[in-house]
Amino acid sequence: ICLENLPKLPIDRPVMYSQSVLWWAAGLGCLECCKRLCAAGWSPRRPDRDGQTALHIAIAADHTKVVKALVQLGAYLSGDGLPMSLARRRGNPQIIALLDSIPCSTP
Q1: Closest among 66, 55, 65 to 20, alpha carbons compared
Q2: Which of 6, 20, 67, 107 is 20 to 30 A from 31, alpha carbon to alpha carbon?
């Protein structure tokens, strides 16, 4: 991900299959990219066409630090495809404990 090009990109512009650059950064576990993208205005709440957010992708890929950052940056913990349900299915105890410790946010 080339962060230098961010000012030239429309905020939350879908890259592929309605997935944003933030979605891809979360899936790759790039913590610094996720922080910088959110600081530039990319929303951690924006779902792709299947309802998956960057938080879902970070959980599915077991990127605990990215999960924590996305929650701190405003990702929703409830709604369609509950992140906690996904975390329990994935079985990562660190992510489950992290999500358990945070009050639910709703859209």
Answers
A1: 55
A2: 107
